[in-house]
Amino acid sequence: MAAKETPPSEKGAKAAEQGLDIGGMIMEHVTDAYEWHFFTVGEHNISLYLPVILYDQGHWIVFSSSRLKHGHASYKGYYLCEHGSDIGKLVRKNASGKEVLPQLDISITKTVLAIFINAFLVILIFISIARSYRKREGKAPKGMQSLLEPLIIFIRDDVAKDSIGEEKYERYLPYLMSLFFFILFSNLFGIVPIFPGGSNVTGNIAVTGVMAFFTFVITTVSGNKHYWKDIFNTPGVPWWLKYPVPLMPFVELMGIFTKPFVLMVRLFANMLSGHIVLAGFISLIFIFGTFGVGMGYGVSVFSIAFAIFLDLLEVLVAFIQAYVFVLLSALYFGMATEVPEHH
Amino acid sequence: MQLINPGIGLIFWMTLAFLIVLFILGKFAWPAILKGLKEREQSIQEALDAAKEAQEQMKRLKMDNDKLLKDAMEERDAILAEARKMKEKIIGDAKGKATDEASVIVESAKEKINSEKLAALREIKSTVAAYSIEIAEKILREELKDKAKQKKYIEKLLKETSLN
User: Fold this and answer.
1) Given this model, what pLDDT does residue A185 score?
2) Backbone dihedral region of A57: left (phi > 0), alpha (psi from -120 to 50 degrees) or beta?
3) pTM value?
4) Per-residue model confidence as pLDDT tens digits over B89-133
5) β-strands A90-93, A35-41: how paired?
6) In chain A, what are the domain boundaries?
7) Domain boundaries of chain B, sorted by first residue
């Protein structure tokens, strides 16, 4: 649990007297953790404890996150950092008593598990759809197949074909499709509040960063002569912007990196803010609940109404963000492979 | 802030998971799905084309039918018109022939009547002559019963003859 000033068990007990740590609660929802916390019953936390995998000082260290006792205990010198930039991560004290991160922390965290679940579901769904395409060859779509076929056709025709062009789009189609459906399913599962949904996968910068990096690599690798020429010798720009100070080439070169960077930030920020606002609305009930039970019930009506509205908005955002990510990726591929028209 | 501080572990696992998704879907899902879609689209397009072709053919057939019908009607009209014309011609011919024949009959009848008339007249003439001679003979015989009268008459005749 990240940003945990007070452990959850104490939190429940103290809530009535000293108010709730709403910020901490919301942060707990949107950040990564070493365990998957479901809910707290009285003094007991109901959590799925995930394996911690560390490589430090020449050793592999593997243990269950239950040994950390929700941040109360340390195991082999490793404990959850409670402040600073590494808050919520496993750290140890070095010889001089300073907190340092382990050399490598590839623990199966909550987000990692959610990624695995999402990836597994996406694979399962599309393998089964592929099977029905093979089995029902030349027939009308049915079930899951007909549910997702409009989206598949949409990505193929309106995103890939339109952005990349009739001749080359087929090469990028598998990537764009996988990307779109992975993002879409992750977004949608993130809205579902119960396990295995509810984890903030696409609102995690590492996740969006990896996907943006893939787009960056594919764009750069498939860039043709025309693409690079446009970057280093931008046409239609006065010569003094290129020589002696290569201002335009520099800006264009920056553009190569800013484009995927923007992709990463846009998806991350949109999904994260959605989760935070939703959690905020639900938390309002508990904030007002501390003023009085009646107040809590009264506010809950409005809070739930707003939360439902936001949930629906989030469904829309889930589609839009997946679409935007894939559309922009396709546009970058289109730019990279564009063949100049001969005049 | 831990929010914008990507963890190495997460990056590692995400890359791995995403690569696996890309690989498995790229190998087992997308080719089949896209191929199936394309084939179905093609078959639908073909069906539509075939339907259009059939429609066109129907139209052509109908046009042909109409043309045939029109031709048949025209022919029928032409045949009818010809028949009518022929009928009129036959009637006309028959009328003409009948008139001719009638006039021939009338002519021959006239001729016959004429010749009969002439024959009758000749007979009447000869009969009248015979009667006249007979009457004259009788009158002469009556007149010349006595010699005196004969002599007187002969003298009279001689007188007339000499005068000629």
Assistant:
1) 92
2) left
3) 0.75
4) 999 999 999 999 999 999 999 999 999 999 999 999 998 888 888
5) unpaired
6) 51-105, 110-337
7) 8-122
State CA B129 to chain mean position distance: 69
Sign of CA dihedral A43, A44, A47, A53: positive
What are A198-214's pLDDT values in tens digits?
Answer: 788 898 899 999 999 99
In whole angstroms, what is the distance from residue B102 CA to residue B93 CA?
Answer: 14
Separation CA B58–CA B77 (nearest Å) = 28
Select the residue of B14, B28, B34 nearest A210 (Cβ to Cβ). Answer: B14
Which token pair is B31? 């080719």
d(CA B70, nearest CA chain A) in Å: 45
Q: Looking at the complex, report in whole angstroms how far the Cα of residue B22 sits from the nearest Cα belonging to chain A.
A: 6
Q: Hey, CA dihedral for A117, A119, A125, A128, is it positive or negative?
A: negative
Chain A interface disruption, residue of B1, B5, B21, most A CBs within 10 A:
B21
Question: CB pairs below 8 Å between A and B: how many?
Answer: 133
Mean pLDDT of successive 10-residue stretches along chain A, which has 343 residues: 40 47 79 81 80 86 82 81 78 82 86 92 92 82 86 92 89 93 92 80 91 94 87 81 82 91 93 88 82 82 87 92 95 89 63
Closest alpha carbon to B8 in A219, A111, A119: A111
Cβ-defined contact of A149 to B37 (cutoff 8 Å)? yes
Strand, helix or coil for residue A37: strand
What are A82-103's pLDDT values in tens digits? 777 777 788 888 888 788 888 8
Amino acid at B155: E
